[in-house]
Specification:
mainly alpha
C-alpha cells in the first residue's frame, strides 16, 4: 500500500514537471532520494520512464483532432495538414532516436547523478532568463504551427537531444530551442508536446525490451497507478501552460530552476 501511495506522488510530480520546462527527470530523481520505491532496481528504472506514457496520452487526448489525419469531419486540406504535421514530428524525432539508442547506458550509468542534475537545472535556468530578456523586443519569425519548416523542426529535434542529460528538461530544451531560432513560445510549446509522443513511446518500448517484462503483479499495479495519475495531472497542466504562455514568458521557470538547483546541492551536501 505504501508503494501505491508513493507511485501516486511520483505520478503527480511527473504530470506537472514533464510539461513545465523544469526537468521531470531531475525532480523524480530528487523525489526518489526522499521517497524511495522499495522495489527492484530494474523496475524502478522502468517505472521512471513508463509513467511518462501517461503524460503522452494526455497530449493525444487533448490534441486528438489536430493529430488525427483520418477524421471524417476534416476536409482534404485539413487531413493533409495533419499528415504533414506528423511528418514534421518524425523528422524532429530522428536526432533523439539516434542519440538515445547509442548512449542510453552512458546516460543511465554516468550522467544520472545529483551533481549533473543540479548543474543543468542552474545552467538552463540562467539561459532561460537571458533568452527571454533578449527576445523581449524581437518579433518571432514564426507565429503559426503550420508555418514551421522541416529545417525548423529538425533544429528543434537537435535541441531535444540535450534533454538526455538529467536535469535539462525535454520540454525545456525544445521550447528553448524554438525561442532561439525565432519561434513564438506558444507554437514552440505545442510542437514540443507533439515531439514528446514518439520520443516517450520509443523510450518506453526500448526500456521494456532492454529490461524485460518479468515483474510481480504488485509492481505492475504500482506502474499502472503512477501512469494513470500522470495522465490526469498532465491534462490539467498542459491546458494551464498553454494559457499561461499566451501572455507570459518563461523567466519564472528560469528562476525556479536556479532556486531548486541550490536546494538540490544543499540537500546532497548536508
Amino acid at each position: 500500500m505504501v508503494d501505491i501511495i508513493k507511485s501516486i506522488i511520483f505520478g503527480i510530480i511527473q504530470g506537472i514537471t514533464e510539461w513545465l520546462p523544469i526537468s521531470s527527470t531531475g525532480h523524480l530523481l530528487l523525489l526518489d532520494k526522499f521517497m524511495t520505491l522499495q522495489l527492484s532496481n530494474n523496475f524502478k528504472e522502468l517505472f521512471m520512464v513508463v509513467i511518462q506514457l501517461g503524460s503522452i496520452l494526455a497530449v493525444i487526448v487533448l490534441y486528438f483532432n489536430t493529430l488525427n489525419p483520418f477524421s471524417f469531419k476534416k476536409n482534404k486540406a485539413e487531413k493533409q495538414a495533419s499528415l504533414v504535421l506528423w511528418l514534421k514530428v518524425i523528422v524532429a524525432s530522428i536526432p533523439a532516436a539516434f542519440i538515445g539508442f547509442l548512449f542510453d547506458d552512458i546516460i543511465s550509468d554516468v550522467l544520472s547523478t545529483w551533481q549533473v542534475v543540479a548543474l543543468m537545472l542552474f545552467v538552463y535556468g540562467v539561459i532561460y532568463i537571458f533568452i527571454e530578456k533578449h527576445n523581449k523586443k524581437i518579433e518571432p519569425r514564426i507565429n503559426q504551427l503550420e508555418n514551421l519548416s522541416y529545417f525548423d523542426v529538425l533544429k528543434m529535434g537537435f535541441f531535444q537531444t540535450l534533454a538526455f542529460i538529467p536535469g535539462t528538461s525535454r520540454s525545456g530544451s525544445t521550447i528553448l530551442g524554438g525561442l532561439i531560432i525565432g519561434i513564438d513560445r506558444t507554437v514552440a510549446a505545442k510542437f514540443s508536446f507533439f515531439m514528446a509522443i514518439p520520443a516517450m513511446f520509443g523510450a518506453s518500448l526500448f526500456k521494456l525490451i532492454k529490461l524485460g517484462y518479468d515483474y510481480t503483479s504488485h509492481e505492475y499495479v504500482v506502474l499502472f497507478v503512477g501512469t494513470f495519475v500522470s495522465f490526469v495531472v498532465s491534462l490539467l497542466v498542459i491546458k494551464a501552460l498553454i494559457n499561461y504562455v499566451r501572455n507570459h514568458d518563461f523567466s519564472i521557470f528560469g528562476w525556479y530552476r536556479i532556486i531548486i538547483s541550490i536546494f538540490v546541492t544543499l540537500i546532497y551536501i548536508l
